[in-house]
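task queued by scheduler; priority normal; single chain, no ligands, no partner chains; default sampling; output format set to structure tokens
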Amino acid sequence: MEWYIVLLLIFVGLIALMFTGLPIAFSFLGLSSIVMFLLMGEFGIRQLVLGMYDSLNSFPFTAIPFFMILGEVFYQSGIVTKTLDTLSLFVRRIPGRLSVITLLAGGVFAALSGSVVANVAMFGALMLPEMMRRGYNKSLISGSIMASGALAMVIPPSAIAVLLGGIAQISVGKILIGSILPGVCLVVFYIGYVVISCLRKPSLAPTYEINKVSTKEMFKAAAVDILPLLFIFVLVMGLIFFGVATPTEAAALGALGAFVLTIFYRRFSLKLVYNSLMSSLKVTAMILMIIAGSAGFSQILALTGASREAVAAILALPVSPMVILWLMLGVTILLGFFMEQTAIMMITLPLFMPIVNALGFDQVWFAVLILICLQIGQLTPPVGLALFTMKGVSPPEVTMGDIYRGAIPYVILDIVVLALLVLVPPIITFLPNFI
């Protein structure tokens, strides 16, 4: 059987299982088990089990639960409320003020939480009522909240980045460091879009009176409510950057630091510990189940020769390497319309990484580009998690049409930033080269 027929049958079978409502992990596991049994009988099932064990027996994956705990502690404790209040003191008379505050806070908490859904839900609950009361445009409201949440996909520490590094066998530390400047670029582009839009059309975000605050009060509030959070981020990323600790060790220290901050802010409780640990456990278990369930995918590609033949066919195309790169990125974005990000990585990376290595692309550079593509999938229908989370926290007068219209400009901005990173690789590779 031709390699492309094998790939097509596997992909169609996987999509069909997912559309039945079967969880992603069990879809991968079911399809892999059936194909391995058909190819090798009982021995194939044994190989699948060994492959599942080997896929989970990877040290980089141990960072995932600690990064999840780090984010959950801040989410469950409600510390974000104080941070938003303090940021509002610094963002004074600027067009689209509340949207700008939301995006800035999104950048701060993306550096402390790797959960897009949690961030969208949090900022939706905190900022949406106030922006609605001030008469902000509904699409501007939903777009800025969803974009602020989606930043958690790229700005480190990101659990998805850790997972990507483990699957692709790339240095997790370098991916995390390499995504810092792209994350900053996204925040700058987002805020620039909001300000320019509100300058061109002031009715999008009506102005209102702001209470005057002294410079001394502003910096005092920043020292109490923002600097401790930034210290956690600098601690985690600094330990990784200078090679003092592995991502797992840095994440564990960051999680401990998050609990210490809850004591400092008088938000600590046994209920907080229980809720944070249980929520982190559920998400981590889901991720690891997906990894285990997809372990057979690479084995199937190797056994059938589909991976080898696909790579050879793509490399033989009479096009430049950059065209092949954009083809891979385009496929990732397209899959984001229909599939969950973890599943996309499981399907594409076993095929993409041999091509990346053969073409001589920088692995860290490519990994961060893939992260941007995966982030786009959070904002695109019909399965973008940010879209449905936004609808879940919105009042009835905010329709799905408003939410879609709010997301479109940020999808375009993501593609613009993606093109910038392709054209100027040092934005990604500059910091990792120092590790």
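post-processing summary
- The chain has one domain: 3-12+21-434.
- The first helix runs from residue 3 to 19.
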